[in-house]
Amino acid sequence: xxxxxxxxxxxxxxxxxxxxxxxxxxxxxxxxxxxxxxxxxxxxxxxxxxxxxxxxxxxxxxxxxxxxxxxxxxxxxxxxxxxxxxxxxxxxxxxxxxxxxxxxxxxxxxxxxxxxxxxxxxxxxxxxxxxxxxxxxxxxxxxxxxxxxxxxxxxxxxxxxxxxxxxxxxxxxxxxxxxxxxxxxxxxxxxxxxxxxxxxxxxxxxxxxxxxxxxxxxxxxxxxxxxxxxxxxxxxxxxxxxxxxxxxxxxxxxxxxxxxxxxxxxxxxxxxxxxxxxxxxxxxxxxxx
Length: 289
Known about the structure:
Elements: H1 2-15, E1 18-23, E2 30-36, H2 38-62, H3 70-111, E3 117-121, E4 129-133, H4 138-148, H5 158-167, E5 176-180, E6 190-195, E7 200-202, E8 207-215, E9 219-226, E10 230-240, E11 247-248, E12 253-257, E13 270-276, E14 279-281
Antiparallel strand pairs: 1-2, 3-4, 5-6, 6-13, 7-12, 8-9, 8-11, 9-10, 10-12, 10-13, 13-14
């Protein structure tokens, strides 16, 4: 009982107020006073420490105060250097893509009987391009003769075009129902397919993966260069299983449909686009769905 009494007295002493005063030593008059208790002093100290912690946390999060520290400064420099290197890599990739597009455009112009141009990208942030006529070579002249003559590759005869189209045997990338058909007037450069009991997306023909990008609206998009200058764009994938530069066979798995394409209320169909020489083609004219 004596121990409990001592604990009770100690607890009451924590909340017992003391008088803190300031007295003038010259005339012994009290100039200021206040009442404090040990519990109040402890609560005030804890509150001050919490406010100090919040203030330091705010300074660290919303101000560059950490850059004044020697160790953190070097880490910030390394992060900035890595960022600059990534920007340089992206710029190099952009130049390579520009060269590939120029090459494809020149091939298309040769096929149309026009003179190709060489585009020179200046070493600056802008994309200034100068067009310089390229002197046709002997191989170019021979190719022009084959395309403009009376042979099977003459681009001016519909029969030759039908023969080339019939020689292309493409397979359906997924099994499903076509919900939106090809229509240039309505801005649809491909078809939309509602997949039926499958999540596999296969290549329509053998080819090489040339691009793989992601967008919030269409998900993962895969671009594959097939034979006969045919480029297929597979849209609405969850994640491709092939990498850029990889060669695929006809019917080989290239990706899976996005999760929201399963049998749910918010179903987003798979989209397929076919392009040849920069012009969209109707996939239903080449593939039997």
